């Protein structure tokens, strides 16, 4: 239930752009047991983007995957803040430097006003890292988390 139902959440993406983002998520997860989610909201108040991403990661129960290989891409559009938060399974494989490089690549796209391209590239790169460390196994793998885009306030 929304506390303020009259407050409309800003729609940052067209229907076509949303479909591109969803397709990027599906493709990223196609060859891996890993999970990727995208969370978009207007503002990141009172905490850093990484802290907010971590908070949302646990709220979305992304830490419940079997291999602890879920990754959340977080964007606060109005505040121009981004973060990528990976669970311990994938974080141990790629290190903090990897996440920082992905954020920097995403920000280069954002500076050129190519937000969707930057998000799609980041999601694809994460999918590749997940594939390298957690390849898909048709006997055991299942889609453990929804492939939707989560929109906050």
Any key phrases for this structure?
single chain; globular; 153 residues; 4 strands; alpha/beta; disordered N terminus
Task: Report on this structure.
The chain is of the alpha/beta class. About 45% of the residues lie in helices and about 15% in strands. The protein contains four helices and four strands; from the N terminus they run H-E-H-E-E-H-H-E. A four-stranded mixed sheet has the order 3-2-1-4, with helices on both faces. Helix 1 runs parallel beside helix 4 (about 115-135) and helix 3 (about 90-110) runs antiparallel to helix 4. The longest helix is centred in the middle third of the chain and has 24 residues, at about 90-110. The chain starts with 14 loop residues before the first helix and ends with a strand.
Write a brief caption for the model.
46% of the residues lie in helices and 15% in strands. The protein has 153 residues and is an alpha/beta fold. The relative contact order is 0.23.
> What is the topology, as strand order, of the major beta sheet?
3-2-1-4
| Number of helical segments with 4 or more residues | 4
Shape: globular
Computed CA radius of gyration, to the nearest angstrom: 15 Å
Q: What does the average pLDDT come to?
A: 91
**How can the largest sheet be summarized?**
4 strands, mixed
Low-confidence regions? 1-7
Structural class: alpha/beta
Q: In percent terms, what proportion of residues is strand?
A: 15-25%
Helix share bin: 40-55%
How far is the N terminus from the C terminus? 13 Å
| Helix-strand topology string | HEHEEHHE
- Report the count of strand segments: 4
